[in-house]
């Protein structure tokens, strides 16, 4: 009887291996990122419906990760939770096991963002003083919440990648000596380059590796608090004269990423990349989408295919609309940004309280975090950005490769192949508000029948 039992086990194992794993968010059915029954292949392998064909032979960019901006306010709310509650939510967010979502990328502010309690830099001085050698550089304010939370996150997932972005230099470096607007004074270019170097070095001393920096958050939006106006010609000048040489001098391997603003101005990164003296130091360009269209990323890629692209920020406006936000963000960012060569998709921001605080005077008053934290409670259900990122982050692990899948009207989709187990991941959204859509998926030579209700998102692993 031993041989038949082994044969039956073998058949069952093969059958299970051919099944598709399926995770669903369907707001109308109150299904919030929940695993569904496995889908078995058709017995006859017949194609008789709309079909999404996954083709691993056509490959595109490597994925660095999916995640959020860990603002100072987000870190404060997380850090103020009691030890048990904080440990639970950090495990839920960053642990990569089957019960959690495994966020793989975080963006940090270098100094304050507009979602901090106060405006600060790492080199704040009395009026009329300067510090060209960064003698008074101090991570200071970050030691309150950001650094402790990052250390806890890194203990859960030591491989998470971190990007730093400044909202403003120290105000003594600026033309208007104010946290809002102004430009970087050219005589302080070298000092500001050293400021970046010191940030990376001091974070490393804390065990925190900064994988990439952008030169300036939203350089064409000088009305935020903090903010800085930095035109393309001056960003190129700063990189080639000061930042690039400083990184080289101090053996800094952190990636330099330009622009970090809306997709309506692809000319900005293109202008900088045309400058060969600046281009030699640049890894790629970063985008937001409060203006323009997502295919602008491909416009930049087509001109400089050797340079990487990143999608680094998109907000969900309070109070949020799960169905509408889910469809737009998955269609436009998880699918759209990655189909246009982005290596990351990051939502803004990780956490806020019920009053959407903290924020600086003049900072964002309607930015809804992925989490709402009320005193010592993380509210459920989570907010739209949580589910948007979960559908990709949990399954499309860093170093996955985007692969080909055909465009289907009404069913925006994108496919990836993981590098660890070579399984394929397909994210699909039914962008119609109402109406169930049946379709098929062709993967590994097998055909599978499935469906999504209007306004729902499915992630399929085969």
TrEMBL record:
<dbReference type="InterPro" id="IPR013780">
    <property type="entry name" value="Glyco_hydro_b"/>
</dbReference>
<feature type="signal peptide">
    <location>
        <begin position="1"/>
        <end position="17"/>
    </location>
</feature>
<dbReference type="InterPro" id="IPR033452">
    <property type="entry name" value="GH30_C"/>
</dbReference>
<dbReference type="InterPro" id="IPR001139">
    <property type="entry name" value="Glyco_hydro_30"/>
</dbReference>
<comment type="similarity">
    <text>Belongs to the glycosyl hydrolase 30 family.</text>
</comment>
<feature type="domain" description="Glycosyl hydrolase family 30 TIM-barrel">
    <location>
        <begin position="63"/>
        <end position="396"/>
    </location>
</feature>
<keyword id="KW-0746">Sphingolipid metabolism</keyword>
<dbReference type="GO" id="GO:0004348">
    <property type="term" value="F:glucosylceramidase activity"/>
</dbReference>
<dbReference type="Pfam" id="PF02055">
    <property type="entry name" value="Glyco_hydro_30"/>
</dbReference>
<dbReference type="Pfam" id="PF17189">
    <property type="entry name" value="Glyco_hydro_30C"/>
</dbReference>
<dbReference type="GO" id="GO:0016020">
    <property type="term" value="C:membrane"/>
</dbReference>
<keyword id="KW-0443">Lipid metabolism</keyword>
<keyword id="KW-0732">Signal</keyword>
<protein>
    <recommendedName>
        <fullName>Glucosylceramidase</fullName>
        <ecNumber>3.2.1.45</ecNumber>
    </recommendedName>
</protein>
<keyword id="KW-0326">Glycosidase</keyword>
<dbReference type="InterPro" id="IPR017853">
    <property type="entry name" value="GH"/>
</dbReference>
<feature type="domain" description="Glycosyl hydrolase family 30 beta sandwich">
    <location>
        <begin position="400"/>
        <end position="460"/>
    </location>
</feature>
<dbReference type="GO" id="GO:0006680">
    <property type="term" value="P:glucosylceramide catabolic process"/>
</dbReference>
<dbReference type="InterPro" id="IPR033453">
    <property type="entry name" value="Glyco_hydro_30_TIM-barrel"/>
</dbReference>
<keyword id="KW-0378">Hydrolase</keyword>
């Amino acid at each position: 009887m031993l041989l038949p039992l082994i044969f039956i086990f073998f058949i069952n194992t093969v059958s299970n291996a051919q099944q598709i794993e399926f995770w669903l968010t369907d707001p109308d059915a109150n299904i919030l990122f929940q695993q569904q029954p496995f889908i078995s292949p058709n017995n006859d392998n017949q194609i008789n419906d709309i079909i999404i064909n996954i083709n691993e032979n056509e490959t595109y960019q490597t994925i660095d990760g999916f995640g959020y901006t860990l603002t100072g306010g987000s870190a404060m709310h997380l850090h103020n939770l009691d030890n048990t509650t904080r440990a639970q939510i950090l495990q839920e967010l960053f642990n990569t096991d089957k019960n959690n979502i495994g966020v793989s990328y975080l963006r940090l502010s270098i100094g304050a963002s507009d979602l901090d309690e106060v405006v600060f830099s790492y080199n704040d001085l009395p009026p009329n003083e300067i510090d060209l050698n960064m003698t008074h550089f101090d991570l200071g304010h970050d030691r309150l919440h950001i650094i402790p939370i990052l250390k806890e996150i890194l203990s859960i997932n030591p491989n998470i990648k971190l990007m730093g972005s400044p909202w403003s230099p120290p105000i003594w470096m600026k033309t208007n000596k104010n946290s809002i607007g102004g430009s970087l004074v050219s005589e302080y270019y070298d000092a500001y380059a050293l400021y970046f170097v010191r940030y990376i070095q001091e974070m490393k001393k804390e065990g925190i590796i900064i994988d990439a920096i952008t030169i300036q958050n939203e350089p064409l939006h000088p009305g935020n608090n903090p903010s800085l106006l930095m035109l393309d010609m001056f960003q190129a000048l700063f990189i080639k004269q000061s930042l690039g040489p400083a990184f080289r001098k101090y053996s800094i391997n952190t990636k330099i990423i330009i622009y970090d603003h809306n997709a309506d101005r692809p000319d900005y990164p293109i202008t900088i990349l045309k400058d060969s003296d600046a281009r030699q130091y640049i890894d790629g360009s970063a985008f937001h989408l409060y203006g323009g269209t997502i295919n602008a990323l491909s416009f930049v890629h087509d001109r400089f295919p050797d340079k990487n692209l990143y999608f680094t920020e998109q907000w969900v406006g309070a109070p949020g609309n799960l169905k509408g936000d889910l469809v737009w963000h998955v269609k436009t960012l998880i699918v759209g940004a990655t189909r246009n060569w982005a290596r990351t998709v990051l939502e803004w921001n990780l956490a806020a309280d019920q009053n959407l605080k903290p924020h600086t005077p003049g900072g964002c008053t309607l930015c809804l975090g992925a989490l709402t934290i009320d005193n010592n409670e993380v509210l459920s259900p989570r907010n739209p950005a949580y589910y948007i990122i979960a559908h990709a982050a949990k399954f499309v692990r860093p170093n996955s490769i985007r692969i080909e899948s055909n465009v289907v009207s009404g069913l925006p989709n994108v496919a990836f192949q993981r590098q660890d187990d070579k399984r394929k991941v397909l994210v699909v959204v039914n962008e119609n508000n109402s109406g169930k859509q049946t379709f098929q998926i062709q993967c590994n030579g097998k055909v599978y029948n499935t469906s999504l209700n209007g306004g729902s998102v499915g992630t399929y692993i085969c």
